[in-house]
UniProtKB/TrEMBL annotation:
A GO cellular component entry from the record: plasma membrane
Transmembrane annotation, as ranges: 30-63
Subunit description: Heterodimer of a large membrane-associated beta subunit and a small pyruvoyl-containing alpha subunit.
Assigned protein family: Belongs to the phosphatidylserine decarboxylase family. PSD-A subfamily.
Annotated organism of origin: Aurantiacibacter rhizosphaerae
Protein name (Swiss-Prot/TrEMBL): Phosphatidylserine decarboxylase proenzyme
Catalytic activity: a 1,2-diacyl-sn-glycero-3-phospho-L-serine + H(+) = a 1,2-diacyl-sn-glycero-3-phosphoethanolamine + CO2
């Protein structure tokens, strides 16, 4: 049940079930099914109709919106996206995130910080979630290109949307939703001034994309390059902690 408290000592309930489809995607699935049925039943083109029907099932699956069990902790920063940790680098924050917000909230500054890039393929869940609890201080949409989101330069050249969140203890976290080769629209569920919980749904990117997370100064990742992460569940970092972590691919 959504909102139920669960812990590592067995409190709460767990059961398997088919994930619901987000309302944003239902219309696309219905359109895909309608086209497939027209091809099958009216034109009797089975060679094309059955693959289209299978494709419509894939459209519904793309917009699936499973529940997630979000770790609780003021200093924990959870993944905003499902996908592969494709890049980890020390970089200056984007210019749109550097300066103070219009309501006086702090920006990320100009000092280089750790950026974690999470690549989402068309097979991943594409609902994005807030990495921390806090207040949305800024949302900046930037038009751009639609190159492969796995490339480092996609952070500066692709269509993207920057989001600044200020946590309850005053720390500012930035993340960027980046459109990719197939993605053609970033859909926000939030606006400046909204108060969000850690792991709360904040938007989606249609059909393959990437999310960059900018950690506060003095914070380093608790995930490894090449690791798969789950939105709202995987802890990306603990604010204020740093240290080398190593992993072995096997």
């Amino acid at each position: 049940m959504s909102g139920e408290l669960r812990d590592n000592r067995g409190r709460g309930d767990a059961e398997w079930g088919l994930p619901p489809i987000h309302p944003e995607g239902r219309k696309y699935g219905i359109i895909a099914v309608a086209i497939a049925l027209v091809v099958l039943l009216i034109f009797d083109w089975e060679l094309l109709g059955w693959p289209l029907l299978a494709l419509s099932a894939g459209v519904f699956a793309f917009f699936r919106d499973p529940e997630r069990v979000v770790p609780q902790g003021d200093r924990l920063l959870v993944s905003p996206a499902d996908g592969l940790v494709s890049l980890i680098a020390l970089v200056p924050p984007p210019a749109e995130m550097q300066h103070a917000t219009e309501d006086g909230g702090p920006g990320l500054g100009t000092e280089p910080v750790m950026r974690i890039s999470i690549f989402m393929s068309v097979f991943d869940v594409h609902i994005n979630r807030s990495p921390i609890a806090g207040t949305i201080r800024r949302i900046v949409y930037m038009p751009g290109r639609f190159m492969n989101a796995d490339l480092d330069k996609a952070s500066e050249e692709n269509e993207r949307q920057h989001v600044l969140i200020q946590s309850t203890d005053g720390k500012t976290i930035g993340f960027t939703q980046i459109a990719g080769l197939v993605a053609r629209r970033i859909v926000p569920f939030i606006k400046p001034g909204d108060i969000v919980a850690a792991g709360q749904r904040v938007g989606l990117i249609r059909f393959g994309s990437r999310v960059d997370v900018y950690l506060p100064v003095g914070t380093e990742p608790k995930v490894l390059l090449g690791q798969r992460v789950i939105a709202g569940e995987t802890v990306l970092a603990e604010i204020g902690t740093a240290g080398l972590l190593e992993g072995v691919s096997q």
